[in-house]
């Protein structure tokens, strides 16, 4: 009967091909330690963000996006008012 370590070694050889055997075995051992409790670390491998980090990101986004949104909204208001002024001036045919 084949030992567990021997089976792991054969699986590593067949799945990982020409990689270094020590690297392959260490990766297999690392994966063996992952259980249901460690699933969160596999999905989000970095450190968790604090509430202060989130606030800083939102603040940076606000400072970068809000001027652009303001300019676009102002242009939209100007465009709408210009349609009304052009109709008053008798340029309806040019608008269509």
Automatic annotation (TrEMBL):
Superkingdom of the organism of origin: Eukaryota
Stretches the record annotates as Disordered: 1-49
UniProt feature, compositional bias: Basic and acidic residues: 1-14
Protein name: MFS general substrate transporter
Organism: Aspergillus sclerotioniger CBS 115572
């Amino acid at each position: 009967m084949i030992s567990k370590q021997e089976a792991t070694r054969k699986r590593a050889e067949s799945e990982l091909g020409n990689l270094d055997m020590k690297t392959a075995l260490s990766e297999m051992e690392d994966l063996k330690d992952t259980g249901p409790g460690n699933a969160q670390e596999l999905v989000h491998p970095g450190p968790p963000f604090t509430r202060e980090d989130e606030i800083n990101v939102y603040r940076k986004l606000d400072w970068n996006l809000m001027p652009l949104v303001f300019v676009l909204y102002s242009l939209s208001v100007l465009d709408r008012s210009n349609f009304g002024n052009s109709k008053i001036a008798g340029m309806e045919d040019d608008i269509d």
